[in-house]
Amino acid sequence: MPQVSIVIPTLNEAVSLGRTMRQLTLLNPPAKEVIVVDGGSEDETIAIAKQHFELFPPVTDVQVIFSVRRGRSIQMNYGASFATGEILCFLHADTWVPDDLVAVIENTLAEPKVTCGGFISLMSGPQTTRWGISLHNYLKTYYAPLLFRPHLFFRGLRLLFGDQVMFCRRTDFWECGGFNEELPIMEDGDLCLKLVKKGRITLVNRIVQSSDRRVARWGSWKATAIYLYIGILWGIGVDANYLKKFYQDIR
How many whole angstroms separate alpha carbon 118 and alpha carbon 110? Predict the structure, then answer.
């Protein structure tokens, strides 16, 4: 029986969500459930999500729930509270996954010493593939914890971000307190710091594809500078609420 619950936080994601949902209907094996958690979308996000319900196999429960409070951490925790699968997978609405996603996740967590995993994120858009930034994001998984938390790096810490499609066991997630709802960004890095106390975090040698919409707006050099700036300041302990002002929402 499928045991992976996929949680998707949304806010005005009409442009990207349709493709994401279509790919989830093709998962083989299928997910146990797909939970879309909306934070008050004012576009066609909800309608697009519901259009795909009947395309999912009968074993997959699909639902849209509504979070009274808005925020990615808040919405993902809320979705996780509805999940019944043994494994939680947090998927951004603008990230596209392979059809064997569930099998890869289950095989990765079949190793008891692995507590959390994520994929290599290839950032791309309609015009180009962002090879340079994608490479930097890959390397950051390793060099950031080595630089800022070396004692944890050698215990298995790897720094994963939301566009890497993070997954973990539901019991471990809640025992760690879930995502910190006080953090407007870097909630994913914070979760890694908590989960590494339970086991290794691993980067799966498989690719997911994420939208380059933020890089397309900023430009490659500015985006790289912002990512580095935020990462370094977070690594030395600067409050994520201050860092949020450098990382505006882009749809």
Answer: 14
Per-residue pLDDT tens for 57-116? Answer: 999 999 999 999 999 999 999 999 999 999 999 999 999 999 999 999 999 999 999 999
| C-alpha distances out from residue 92 to 13, 21, 42, 163, 210, Å | 10, 11, 18, 6, 9
> What's 171-205 look like in SS3?
HHHHHCCCCCCCCCCCHHHHHHHHHCCCCEEEEEE
Q: What is the mean pLDDT of the chain?
A: 91
pLDDT tens per residue, range 168-208: 999 999 999 999 998 888 899 999 999 999 999 999 999 99
Residue holding tokens 């059809």? 99
Q: How many CA atoms lie within 13 A of 201 on its CB side?
A: 29
Q: What is the pLDDT of residue 249?
A: 60
Class level of CATH domain 4-246: alpha beta
Give how far Cα 149 sits from Cα of 50, 82, 191, 225, Å: 43, 33, 14, 21
Residue 204, beta-bridge partner list: 119
